[in-house]
């Protein structure tokens, strides 16, 4: 077997793509669960007002739940909203509620509007240390499908960007806009930010289109694209309705195995 080592420092990945429906949330939830399954301490931060990552991991996020909204807008400590995932050890979640839909506008007039998540996260790391809790190994931030201030906050808080790309027509459309934004953030707000990982999602090996997308992505992102591809899978699609990741829902399914492999690759590439 392979040995997967803990990273020297907490790795923070933002899962971003301003297109909706490309597999951001599915990837966040299942990579996080796969890494927890591999024995790492993992935190998921849901910053999409839809709260799909919270739902998928079985975390309450009704309108009256304290959430990442209160952290970003009212300076609530992240520690006060971090919730344990009910099905999995070593996995914690910061839920999003519908209030976050207004945050994009509320943030505009706040001090340090781009750095609020970064500060909250760094304070949280410190508070875990003070409380003698184990260090987190991985943090994943599930972004909304836009390039607004929520996504900017995620990119400022992270060191790495993970871009899921759906193996469909128009897969690369809009990507240059995302890359330009990342460059701007790198230049002005977060010099360490880099696109570290591209993950191909909803791959269907029976279609020519899918293999065309794969070669095109490999041409543009030879160093970033993982060899593990996520297949289109019914098990992946139905797991959220049981409030589970595919890792706990059906660990032997091709979808679960693909996410476990992608997670191992992410670990190894960081070593
Ligand atoms: P995003 O967060 O980018 O909007 P989602 O992760 O919510 O995208 O995925 C969009 C839809 O596609 C969801 O209904 C999800 O269940 C489904 N989906 C994602 N990945 C897969 C997959 N590998 N196989 C089958 N369905 C998938
Ligand atoms: Mg989503």
UniProtKB/TrEMBL annotation:
Belongs to the ParA family. This is ParA family protein. Residues 11-194 form the AAA domain. It comes from Nesterenkonia sphaerica. It comes from the Bacteria. SUPFAM superfamilies: P-loop containing nucleoside triphosphate hydrolases (SSF52540). May play a role in septum formation.
